[in-house]
Amino acid sequence: MARLIVLCLLMKTKKILGVIPARYDSSRLPGKALIDIGGKTMVQRVYERASLSQKLDQVIVATDDQRIYEHLLAIGGQVMMTSPNHQTGTDRCAEVAAAKGLDFEVIINIQGDEPFIAPEQIDELAVLFDDPSTEIATLAKKIDSYEELIDEKEAKVVLNDHSEALYMSRSPIPYLRGVAMAHWHEQRDFYKHIGIYGFRSKILANIPKLPQAQAELAEGLEQLRWLAHYKIKVGITLHETFAIDTAEDLKQVKKYL
């Protein structure tokens, strides 16, 4: 009887795959996946941080570059070559998920340019899939300053009463009528979107087939394409993230080391 209970629990266990899309040809910082950061490459740091997650059953790097592929093998990492024709990291994750078949119920897309990602942040996202109704999930963090509120590089997200995304924008949302924008963040909670995503595997398989949405084209945010078809659950995190997109960002690395 005890053995039967154990088998049933194992069958119910959700297998979660962490995928780190990593390409070499970055327009703003070429070769950034292999840039040295304190004695380790960027992609190695992301891989090692993701591997500390308590919720991921496996972590794999998805790349289209032989240099990155060989580097991951050399450090003992798991890596898969993917098509060079993908337009987004999400598409690259979908190819990995398809190759894995139905081995994993949830796929988490971990940004390859965040070498200091907190493993706890990955776990916070994974927990959202304990709710069987969750289709897609992501994280958000409370905005603490006016500068952050108006920074167009930071996507903002507004939530409904069920902690689901209503809309994402590079502009501050919602608009507070009769209040000077410099004081908006003092009047109510505003949230910035944290670029880590989780998908049910069946949902992710359909993502590359979706047509681009008008809002996506206007804002330059692919999440708006998903939002036109699916609900996006949003968890609130206290952990900050730091993405390295430019040479200027690279100069700020020392304080994180």
What can you see in these coordinates?
The chain is of the alpha/beta class. It contains twelve helices and eleven strands. The radius of gyration is 19 Å and the shape is globular. The strands form two sheets. Strands 1, 4, 5, 6, 7, 8, 9, 10 and 11 form a nine-stranded mixed sheet that branches. A two-stranded antiparallel sheet has the order 2-3. The longest helix is centred in the first third of the chain and has 11 residues. The N and C termini lie far apart (51 Å). About 4% of the residues have low confidence.
Structure in a nutshell:
The chain is of the alpha/beta class and 257 residues long. Helix content is 33%, strand content 21%.
Kindly report the average pLDDT value. 91
- Order of helix and strand elements from N to C terminus: HEEEHEHEHEHEHEEHEHHHEHH
Name the beta content range.
15-25%
The class by helix and strand makeup works out as: alpha/beta
Query: Per the principal axes of the C-alpha atoms, what is the gross shape?
Result: globular
- Strand segment count: 11
Over the alpha carbons, how many angstroms does the gyration radius reach? 19 Å
Protein topology:
Elements: H1 2-12, E1 16-22, E2 36-37, E3 40-41, H2 42-50, E4 58-63, H3 66-74, E5 79-81, H4 89-99, E6 106-109, H5 119-127, E7 136-142, H6 146-150, E8 156-159, E9 165-169, H7 184-187, E10 191-200, H8 201-206, H9 214-219, H10 223-227, E11 232-236, H11 247-251, H12 253-256
Parallel strand pairs: 1-4, 1-6, 4-5, 7-11
Antiparallel strand pairs: 2-3, 6-10, 7-10, 8-9, 8-10
